[in-house]
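The records we work with from here on pair a chain with its fold. These numbers are not coordinates but entries in a learned vocabulary of local backbone shapes. To see the layout at work, look at the sequence and tokens printed below:
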Amino acid sequence: VRNMTALVILGSTAAFIAAVLLIPASVTFHYDGLFTVKVRVWFIRLRVYPAKNVRQAEEKGKPAKQKKEKQTILERARVAIALLKTFFLRFDRLVSHFVISPLCVQIRAAGENAHQTALCCGELSALVFPALKFLESRVKRIQPDICIFPDFALEKTQCKIHSTLRVMPLFVLIAVLGGLVAYVRASAKGRLVQAPKEARVKETKQETI
């Protein structure tokens, strides 16, 4: 009876862990003047960003303190796309299991005059659409809805982004373990290479003495 009870407990634990690892988790990104990130695993939903002081300000109905924007929308887009490409290339195996649905991007390009507005719209299009092609070549599936258009009535470019990324926690765990193994191997290799160098330095010092 005890053996059966132990087997049932072990089986239930294994089934629970397998279910947690195999049921896709989702990360939702939203930007509409304020960037928010929400994580959902099963029925558990967590808001991991923005920071605590921003959430408290929202609850009290007071505007949160925001830093002065020094970068233009084009500069921020270039930085964000560069970081995105770096991440996707670094974790290529993990990214190949990503399902991004939807990926909604709406940009209303604006400038000081009609010429700058049209120029801004063209530059943003030249950044966003190649980045979309890059994503399509890396992830498992993506459902994009991209809209970039000039708005001559606005004085400042407006951007709205909403996207949900889904992936099995099992693949994330494998990627983390793989990264740890690679780090340990690299550290061990570095020590093996460094040891002979230190020995040579010691021998050189002894010969000098």
Remarks:
- The radius of gyration is 25 Å.
- Helices lie at 2-22, 52-60, 73-90, 92-95, 114-138, 169-208.
- The first strand starts at residue 25 and ends at 31.
